[in-house]
Design brief:
The protein contains three helices and six strands. A hairpin with a 2-residue loop joins strand 1 and strand 2.
Length: about 140
């Protein structure tokens, strides 16, 4: 991403927070509160090029923190929090089919693959992505 794209991306994150009251969450280990290890997000993609009218779960961790259970722990906590606070009945997630770790986490969380979608974001074609859905009880 170039500087203009980064500024646009950050502006979208801020705008989403102001509009909906949730979005991206930086993630830290308890013992190192000054160094983020990644982020988790729940956002509506209807405001982007993807045009998905349902909340989308996302997560990304620095390489040294992958495969240690943090993705499942963080995503699970975010799902519980937003379901309790915002009463979502369904949550979607997008991931690249080659991202096997992400697929493992989504399946463990109870997501089911529902199809494929071509992702265009901020004017860039990001390619074909698997689309997952979690139906929330209650």
């Amino acid at each position: 991403m170039n500087e203009v794209q980064i500024k646009t991306y950050v502006a979208r994150i801020k705008e989403h927070w102001l509009k909906y009251g949730f979005g991206h969450y930086l993630t830290f280990l308890k013992e190192s509160k000054n160094n983020p290890i990644g982020f988790f997000s729940l956002k509506y993609l209807s405001d982007s090029d993807v045009k998905m009218e349902i909340s989308d779960l996302g997560f990304a961790l620095l390489p040294e923190y992958r495969g240690k259970g943090f993705a499942h722990e963080g995503a699970s906590a975010l799902i519980k929090y937003t379901v309790n606070k915002f009463h979502f009945k369904r949550i979607r997630a997008l991931n690249y089919p080659e991202n096997k770790q992400s697929i493992k986490v989504l399946k463990k969380l109870g997501f089911k693959e529902i199809g494929k979608i071509n992702v265009e974001y901020m004017g860039r074609n990001l390619g074909l992505s698997a689309q997952w859905e979690l139906k929330v009880d209650g």
